[in-house]
Description:
The protein is an alpha/beta fold. It has helices at about 1-25, 35-45, 60-70, 80-95, 105-115, 125-139; strands at about 30, 50, 75, 100-105.
Amino acid sequence: xxxxxxxxxxxxxxxxxxxxxxxxxxxxxxxxxxxxxxxxxxxxxxxxxxxxxxxxxxxxxxxxxxxxxxxxxxxxxxxxxxxxxxxxxxxxxxxxxxxxxxxxxxxxxxxxxxxxxxxxxxxxxxxxxxxxxxxxxxx
Length: 139
């Protein structure tokens, strides 16, 4: 089991590393709320993080913020629950309409890898801690 968990951890770190690199190179990341943005900060993401649900903003306001930043694309990293999936689809359409390329690859890869164990970005940091703890105890 330890080998499987180790592989999972390595794949997660690889995905996050690519995500961090894109953010550092100016690609905005759209998350649902402030807590999600805080978790990305704790995980080491440096760059523009836009909280979609912060302060009662509309999705159109979020798209406008991304457009005004001059970015040609944006990474969508909303929660993987029903509302998060709906918002991802709506934001994707709105961004495309404005000529901004939406990236949902990280969203699909991250939540595909963690399955039902994590439903939101906010849970990623604690999931990584749990994964590390399980790997350490199996060693």
